[in-house]
Structure formats: C-alpha cells, structure tokens
Amino acid sequence: GPQIDMMLRKLKIKSSFVDGMRVTTPESIKTIEMVLSGSINKEIVSKICSAGGNAIGVSGKDGNLIVAKKLRVGNGDKKKGKKIQDLGLVGEPIGVNHKILKDLENSGIIPVVAPIGSSLEGSTYNINADHAAGALSESLRASRLLLLTDTVGVQSRKGKLLSNLDITQSQKMIKDGVILGGMIPKVQTCIKAIQNGVEAAVILDGRVPHALLLEIFTDRGFGTMISNKLKKG
Length: 233
What we know:
By secondary structure, this protein is α/β, with parallel strands linked by helices. 36% of the residues lie in helices and 26% in strands. It has 2 domains: 1-140, 3-Layer(aba) Sandwich (Carbamate kinase); 143-233, 3-Layer(aba) Sandwich (Carbamate kinase). The strands form 4 sheets. The chain has a 4-stranded mixed beta sheet. A 4-stranded mixed beta sheet has the order 9-11-12-10, with helices on both faces. A hairpin with a 2-residue loop joins strand 1 and strand 2. Keywords: Amino-acid biosynthesis, Arginine biosynthesis, ATP-binding, Kinase, Nucleotide-binding, Transferase.
C-alpha cells in the first residue's frame, strides 16, 4: 500500500479507495504491477533468503497462477440506496493453478506471490492481497489462513480487541459499519475461505515481532480468529 501510494504520487497519478480497495485505472495498473511484482515482491524474497529460507518471487500472472475477473462492489439495490461500484481494473480470483505452488513446495521452495492476476482474455487485474491469499489458501486446502495487518485485529466500536468471531458475527459487524476500510476485505476473505474449507482464519498484528511463530507454535494466540463456531474459553 504505502509503496504504491508513494510511487503514484511521484508520477502524479491520483488514487482513491472503496471499502479498503484501491480503484485501479489503466493509467495506474502498470505502476501498481511494477511495485507489487517488482520491488515489494523481491524485497520479501530477499528477506526470506537472508533468513535462511529458499524463496522465489512469482506474479499471479505467471503460469496463470491466479485467474481473475473484474470485481464489482455493492448489490445494486437502489431501494436501499446502494449501487454497484466500478473499481476499474480490480479483479477477484476465479481460479488458481495450485500445481505451480505444489511443485515449488515439493522442491523446497517458498513461493512469494504478487497479487496481480490475468483474466481469461489476458487483461491484467490488481487483486486485493487479502483476496489473493484467501484464494490460494482455498486452493491448497490449508488448515489455517493467516493475514497480517498493522492493527491489533478486529475491534469493537469501543476499540476492544475481539479475539474470537464466528461468520455470522463478522458479517453483521460489516453490515452495521463496525468493521470499516481495509479491514473489510480482510474479514470478507476470512469468511469466504472458511466457507470453502479452510478450518479457521486469523487476522494478526504484523508489527509484533515473530507474530507468525507465536500464532503457530504457542498456545498464546493473539489477534482475531474467525471460524464457523466460537472458541470456548
């Protein structure tokens, strides 16, 4: 996000958001792809390799890893004052070539996927990173989806961290305007992933050192876990 914002400002290209997703114009898509598939992707790959991992950066366009179609936001219900929002060249995943990921995994390679996809007609789409991660987790039949953010997790109206939510509660919080901005696509991704076979999804504070390790290897847990049923205790 911030890196794209900075580059678009340098090039004097205007940018706006709808429900936490960047409206993408033909003018901005090339810059967005350059930042996501180029500098950001390679920076992450470099950090993983420096830490002893064996990583390779790929774009969702490579080998039709992520096939996408145009994303539209809203339900078009004029009676409720809602309309379809055109986000431009923003796509939603409709297919994943998980064989590429499996082949890399079997070779001991960590794939770092830039959230850029292609349509069946060859158009390039900017995909929300959370939506891309969710689609990959569903395709791989992952037991858990972990999303990193720069907040503590999903919060109540009073700012209290909500450690556990079920799908119904999450949907209601979006409808009631409790969940806003960039947290909307994160929670929507968690809901969809669970509905498609992922056991649970966790929204974690990526600012916490070793956040992923703490979530995976300890009973402590933090952030917000979304699942079909509330965790007791």
